[in-house]
Amino acid sequence: LELIPGNVSKKELIYPLMNVAFQKSVFKEDSEEHKKLLGTVYNEFKSGLNKTIEKPGKAAVIYKENTIANQQLLQRCMPKNECVDFAKKKLKLDSIEVYQLKLMMEIYRKAFESCKEDATQLRVVYSNVFNVLLQFFNILLKVNDLLKEVEKLNEIVLATFSWVKLHSNCKELHGLEFKEIIETSNWTNFCKLALKTGIDTQKSPENPSRLDERLHVLLKITAVLVDLFYADNSSPAEIANLYELALSHSRFLDVILVPFQFKVKKSLVHLLLILARKNHSVMDKKHIPILLGSYGATLTETNRFILALIQHYERSGVHIHEFRPFLWGDAAIKHFSLGQDSANQQTLFRTNNAEVFALLNRE
């Protein structure tokens, strides 16, 4: 530590050492000497950290490789008022890097903690960060092969989850409306791209005989954001559009009628359930055969979501009794001719008891 003050300008040497020092908890938060030392280091590297955020493609290698030092210096040394000012900025981003995202989230978290005594400012900061995260998503969702960028995707998803969690633990945010988010093209574009890409399953690069499940996080995070941004039974038109967009996807039936455990199916059904709770008008009797065909009559999370969705249809006035006695799974798929051309599908939904009994297993 004694060598640092006289060698701060030797960035390629000092910064990696700082990274190791932070990893080993060398710097004590209650030490005035350490605070002064870190302040000196921060002032030396401040411009480089700013450039890493604003122009990540031109950031020096030391900032790309030593993310712990980046985060710790900002957390301990960046003035609170500067964090708040940055968190309130309406940024326009054109690229995304993991080290950039981690730096920004560190600033946002510090700004959030600094604003807890000012509810108005806190709400501005909280909402604005979602607009930044949506920009990151939209940049990434436009790449040709998202599976090659799945590490970046997971980092954005984790950052978004952590930011959403702040809402439930902060009473100052309760009742917050998110009009400044849901009325933007950022949100609209994200929803469309996330649905399109999340449902459009691909074969696994490692095993072509299996489907790749990694992009299910897009549907999962969409459900989380919809649940936060919209009140139940608020019936917004964009929710109806999203529901229809999901059902009309070319791979929708392929995914929802998968008979085995599949993360994309689980996330899709969960999203449909969240959307249905926000806008009852999306529910139609003609959806019931599909839901019955997707149901496996087990206690898996996926099947519980499907059952909850069917129950929500019934409670919302959809006459599902017309389909009694109920068939499910493969039997329902065959009975209702799901997946075939609409011209060939059965118009009579009535089933008989023998078909139902045939599904029951003695065990």
UniProtKB/TrEMBL annotation:
One of its GO terms (cellular component) is nucleolus. This is Nucleolar pre-ribosomal-associated protein 1. PANTHER family: NUCLEOLAR PRE-RIBOSOMAL-ASSOCIATED PROTEIN 1, NUCLEOLAR PRERIBOSOMAL-ASSOCIATED PROTEIN 1. InterPro entries: URB1. One of its GO terms (biological process) is maturation of LSU-rRNA from tricistronic rRNA transcript (SSU-rRNA, 5.8S rRNA, LSU-rRNA).
